[in-house]
Structure formats: C-alpha cells, structure tokens
Design brief:
Number of strands: 39
Helix content: 10-25%
Length: about 425
C-alpha cells in the first residue's frame, strides 16, 4: 500500500514540475512575442520618420535594437501613397524564437475640405458697417445690423439679410432686402419686413414677413482644429519667424511666436501654417500658395491678430479657383485700443488691396481701411471704411481647402495590421 502511495506522489510531483515548466516556457514565449511586436511598431515609426526626413525617398533598412532585429520595407503604391512593413525578430532573423510583423499604409496625398462661401460678407451678432462710397459686390448675411453711412452712399449689389430683430439702415441694396426693420434705405428688388420706414422699394413689398434666421459660419471649430493638427504634423518653429529678404517656402508648420514679413519677402506656402502669435505683412512682402495646390485653396491661421498694410500681397496657386484663407482667432471687437489687437482694435486689419484671399475672424472685428478691396470676408463684426470694396467671386461657393501639396507622410486611418 505504501509503495502505491509513493508512486502516486511521484507522478503528481512530476506533473506539477511539468506544468510549471510549461507555464514558464509559455510565459517566456508570450513575452518574446510581445517584445517582437514592440520592436515592429518601433520599426514602423522609424520608417515614417525617415520618409519625412528624406522627402519620401526612404526605401527601408535593417537595424538591431536591444536584443532583437528589425527589417523595414517600403512598397510604393503611387506618388502619394506607400505601404510600410516592419518585421521584428528575437534575437535575430537567422534563428528567431519570436517574430512579429506590422503593416501600415501612409499617405502624403493632401486631404481637402469643401467649404461653401455663399455671401460676399457674412457676419455674426456684431453686424456690419458700410462707409461712404463703400461697396459689397455680392450678397450679405448678418446676424446683427447692417448699417450704412447715410444718403444711400453705402451699397450692397446683391441681397441683404439681417437676422432676428436686426435692422437694415441707410443702405442701397441692389437685390432683395430681408430684415425685421428696414430704415432710410433703397431696395432694388423685393422687401421682406415687419417695419418699413422712409425706404424706396422698386420690387414687391411683403409686410409681416418672418425674420431671417441666424446662420452659422461655413468654417467650423472642427475645420480649424484639423488644420492646426495638419500644420503641427510638419514640425515646429520656436519663437518668431522673420525670414530674410528673398523667396522662402514654408509649410506644413507650427510657429510658436509671430510671423513677420516686412521687407519684400516672398513666402510660398507648401502646406498649412499655424501661427500662435500674430501675423504682420507689410512693405511689399507677399504670401502665395505653391503652384502644386492647383485648383485647391490653402490656409494660414493666427491665434492673435492679422494686419496687412503697405503693399502686402496675397494670392492663391495661380489657378482661378485657388484662394488663400487667413484666419484670426482673436476676440478684438473695436472700441478702445488694446495691446493684444491690431489697429482699430481689430482682429484683422486690411490696409491694402488683397486679391484671391478670404479673411475669417469668427470672434472679432474685420476692419477694411479706405480704398481696400478684398474677395470675401466673414467675422463676428465688420467695418468697411470709405470707398473700400468686397468683390465676391462665384468660385468661392465651391472652394476646396487642402493641407498642401507637400504635407508630411502620415498614417492612413484604419490600415494598421499586425501578424505573427
């Protein structure tokens, strides 16, 4: 009986030792596989980095890291897209005890956002003031009042909409006018209103009409966040950026300071640029989009104010459908001058003709000085000084905004794969 008992104990002991041994082996095997996966992921990151460092000419490499080896390969799909493969071996590719592979598609193809600017001017609750002899060639939609200088010397050639209880006052409107109240104006088309005072209407009149509803801007906070992300992906310039005279290319890029162009510099945007400070362009300096943008439009953003004066020049890519969009997030709304705002306490101050450019200040004032002409403007509030002009182009209704022709190589969402 004792011999049988001893035999049972011995079998049980051998089973426990065998189980513990298998457990240790399996744990070690799992550990090595996870280590190989981490190395493969590092290989993918290395491949993406090298693609951006070599302008896309990187083809792959073999390197050792820690107690493993990694082989990266680049498979060309087309000029904008590639597939990356990174295979990791523990301890080496000749006699591996663990192996993992990661596959990722990357792209430098510019993404585009379709934005529709249906009005020559669109403003928020702050409304728009149109000075003596100033003209908006196109339609105006305002969530606040639309006010002219008097005697109908302030002109809107298209339709005018003042939302809610807002007023159209002392403006010559070439098309239809829609507002709760229309005062001291001239309407070339039809008039839709609750109150009409001292106003000549060439078309039909529609009293007791409902007030126009407030409208949101065509650019969302999500659009702005995406553009900032695209700019930051191209690297960061710490401090102010003030290039020497001559021609320089920039983008995608984030600038932690200010962008200052004041001595005939020619800045060509090759991607989205985000400036955390202000943008000041003067003395014949210019900003344009690289020709590879083709019919697409490009974006430059400032967290603070934007000021254009003394023959600053802006343009798209050269294609008639290409525009430059300049955005200021500053909350400057006129009144007493403060240090954090452009002159006239504005978010965007324009003192020079600016063709092929859209200006957007969702939180503040856009101020056009005398004799300034631009293509499109949208902001919380707007002031057109005497004889200034906004000349809307129909192509703005179908503008495509791109992150640029030479954006950084980045992962295509949903293409990450892992294999053993």
């Amino acid at each position: 009986m004792s011999l049988v008992f001893m035999a049972v104990i011995m079998v049980a002991s051998v089973s426990v030792v065998s189980y513990e041994g298998n457990f240790v082996l399996q744990t070690k095997k799992n550990y090595n596989r996870e280590k190989a996966l981490a190395l493969a992921e590092a290989g993918i990151n290395q491949a993406v980095y090298q693609l951006n460092q070599t302008a896309g000419s990187y083809t792959g490499e073999t390197f050792t890291f820690g107690d493993g080896a990694v082989v990266t390969q680049v498979i060309n799909i087309d000029g904008f897209n590639k597939t990356l493969e990174a295979t990791a071996y523990i301890p080496n590719a000749v006699s591996p005890i663990a192996q993992r592979k990661v596959i990722l598609k990357v792209s430098t193809e510019p993404s585009t956002d379709a934005l529709a600017f249906h009005y020559g001017v669109q403003v928020g609750d702050g409304g728009v003031f149109i000075g003596m002899g100033a003209e908006i060639d196109g339609n105006v939609y305002s969530n606040g009042p639309i006010t002219g200088s008097g005697d109908n010397h302030s002109t809107i050639t298209g339709d005018a909409f003042a939302a809610g209880a807002a007023v159209i006052d002392s403006v010559k409107v070439g098309g239809d006018a829609r507002a709760n109240t229309i005062l001291d104006s001239e309407v070339g088309g039809d008039a839709y209103y609750q109150i009409l005072t001292n106003t000549e209407v060439d078309g039909a009149s529609y009293p007791a009409s409902p007030n126009p509803a407030p409208q949101s801007f065509p650019i969302s906070d999500g659009n702005v966040a995406d553009w900032k992300f695209a700019a930051e992906a191209g690297g960061t310039i710490v401090g102010d950026y003030r290039p020497l005279p001559g021609t320089v290319s920039l983008g995608p890029k984030k600038i932690t300071g200010n962008l200052i162009l004041d001595n005939h510099q020619i800045l060509i945007l090759t991607g989205t640029v985000w400036v955390q400070g202000y943008i000041d362009v003067s003395n014949g300096a210019s900003i344009s989009l690289h020709p590879d943008y083709d019919r697409n439009s490009g974006v430059i953003l400032a967290d603070k104010w934007i000021q254009v004066g003394n023959n600053g020049v802006f343009s798209g890519s050269g294609n008639e459908d290409s525009f430059l969009l300049m955005i200021s997030s500053a909350g400057c709304r006129g009144g007493t001058q403060t240090a954090d705002c452009a002159d006239n306490n504005s978010s965007i101050l324009l003192s020079n003709n600016v063709n092929s450019t859209i200006f957007y200040a969702p939180n503040g004032l856009i101020h056009l000085n005398n004799l300034v002409e631009v293509k499109e403007a949208a902001g919380y509030m707007m002031h057109l000084s005497n004889n200034s002009e906004i000349d809307y182009e129909s192509g703005l209704a179908n503008a495509l905004f791109s992150n640029g022709p030479s954006g950084a190589w980045s992962a295509v969402r949903g293409t990450w794969q892992e294999s053993r």
